[in-house]
Design brief:
Bound molecules: carboxymethyl coenzyme *A
CATH topology of the largest domain: Citrate Synthase, domain 1
Helix content: 40-55%
Structural class: mainly alpha
Number of domains: 3
Shape: globular
Low-confidence stretches: none
CATH superfamily of the largest domain: Citrate Synthase, domain 1
Strand content: 5-15%
């Protein structure tokens, strides 16, 4: 394998080094491109640009492979759980029984949010979107817990232990914030975390218990939700993770970096797609659309309608997360004897799309959001909280990437370039010399 590639510009040849990843992925190192050639690389949406090297997640879109620190996602879905996966992502190894216990204890110790923070919720309108509240509250957490090296009263801890405390704080408190924002939107009293419950059951307790009525999650329900979180825990350089890395690259603390990630995730082409899928299925169900029309609209170049929950920038064969979740969804529905007309519509849409040349040629398959919404809906999670569930799941990945940025030897502030396509130099014209009447003056 060659170690360099040759780039030719105006009869001049330049040697650019090749970088090869563990799985044979090849990248052309263009760090010196501008210095050597005067040119920069142009790649809107970064579809062909590796912005970093990373040891966390491997994805092979052609073969539908996804692994966390080398472990296939299918094996983790079978035998692991969200907290173990969180540990794996951040520390690069499966925890020993003792490490796991210690981390679980830290999560329990950090489940409460500062009482003063509760008053922040009262400042939001009851119609506030839970993602807006989540991002604001995570940033507000930063006012109470400082970044690495500055944890109050814990100066004696080394950087690894400090990160463990910080990670546990965020992973534990995010679910409390999420549940409180739901309670706020319903005008119900906040339900405090129960230290005897496991991560997911505790979240469901805070969501659905009432002061006079305790909600106890069925094990199958807790397992299905745990699996959703696990499958969302990292996905290498997606939009929100890249946002977290970009903010972190400026030296920002973990709370603000993650808060920015929540904002990016909210977008409908990213984490917001799980809500959009259910809204689309609901529209079909209510008669505003039908499945065939939906497919036709998605194919129409004049329409900006897209089949939500379909397609992926990286997966061009299948999304392994979607396969696992489809099975989990069917198992859960059977176990609960749950019927949902939206599932029948989803299956019909999937069948139509998978047999349609438009989707086949463009390699558009169901993605993780296509089935996660069906499971969340059956658990009783309201649609506007779906992306919040995605954020709770993605948090360990964001923390792992934040850590990687801070520990990278070649850490650089993210600062892309652009190809300027605006005006050439113009000259400022003082007001007295301007011709015509401006729209403001004419009012
Ligand atoms: N429905 C209809 N056409 C589509 C769809 C879709 N869902 N996705 C892509 N296409 C078409 C697109 O119109 C384009 O066609 P043409 O070549 O004729 O112009 C072609 O496929 C390539 O699309 P693209 O927009 O260049 O692909 P991308 O890699 O930039 O976008 C995507 C990936 C996920 C944003 C896109 O597939 C999409 O908008 N899907 C629907 C939203 C969705 O489900 N998002 C969740 C993604 S998975 C969770 C996550 O990681 O956030």
């Amino acid at each position: 394998m060659a170690e360099n590639v040759i780039l030719e510009i105006d009869d001049k040849k330049y040697n650019l080094p090749l970088i090869i990843g563990t799985e044979g992925e090849k990248g052309i190192n263009i760090l010196k491109l501008r210095d050597q050639t005067g040119c920069i690389a142009y790649d809107p949406g970064f579809g062909n640009t590796a912005s970093c090297d990373s040891k966390i997640t491997y994805i092979n879109g052609e073969n539908g492979i996804m692994r966390y620190h080398g472990i296939p996602i299918e094996q983790l879905a079978e035998g692991s759980d969200f907290i173990e996966v969180a540990y794996l992502l951040i520390w690069g190894k499966i925890p020993t029984a003792q490490e796991r216990r210690h981390f679980s204890d830290l999560l329990t110790d950090n489940a409460l949010i500062h009482e003063n923070l509760k008053s922040h919720f009262e400042g939001f309108p009851s119609s506030a979107h839970p993602m807006a509240m989540l991002s604001a509250m995570i940033n507000a957490l930063g006012c109470y817990h400082h970044d690495l090296g500055k944890i109050e009263g814990e100066d004696e801890l080394g950087p690894e232990q400090q990160l463990e405390v910080l990670a546990a704080r965020l992973i534990s408190k995010i679910r409390t914030i999420a549940a409180f924002s739901y309670k706020m939107s319903r005008g119900e009293p906040f339900i405090y975390p129960d230290p005897n419950l496991r991560y997911v059951s505790n979240f469901l307790h805070m969501m659905f218990s009432l002061p006079h009525k305790h909600y106890e999650a069925m094990p199958e329900v807790a397992k299905a939700l745990d699996m959703i979180l696990m499958l969302h825990a990292d996905h290498e350089q997606n939009c929100s993770t890249t946002t977290v890395r970009m903010v972190a690259s400026a030296g920002a603390n973990l709370f603000s970096s993650v808060s920015a990630g929540v904002c990016a995730l909210w977008g409908r082409l990213h984490g917001g797609a799980n809500m959009a899928v259910i809204n689309m299925l609901q529209q079909i169900h209510d008669g505003g659309l039908n499945a065939k029309k939906c497919i036709e609209l998605a194919k129409d170049p004049k329409s900006d309608f897209r089949l939500m929950g379909f397609g992926h920038r990286v997966y061009k064969n299948h999304d392994p997360r979607a396969r696992i979740l489809k099975g989990a969804c069917e198992r859960l529905f059977t176990k609960l004897d749950h019927k949902d007309p939206l599932l029948d519509i989803a299956l019909e849409l999937e069948d139509l799309a998978l047999n349609d040349s438009y989707f086949i040629e463009r390699k558009l398959y169901p993605n993780v959001d296509f089935y996660s919404g069906m499971i969340l809906r059956s658990i009783g999670i309201p649609t506007n909280m779906f992306t919040v569930m995605f954020a709770i799941g993605r948090l360990p990945g964001w923390i792992a990437h934040w850590r990687e940025v801070h520990e990278a030897e070649n850490m650089k502030i993210a600062r892309p370039r652009q190809i300027y396509t605006g005006n050439k130099e113009l000259h400022y014209v003082p007001m007295a010399q301007r011709q015509g009447v401006s729209p403001i003056e004419s009012k």
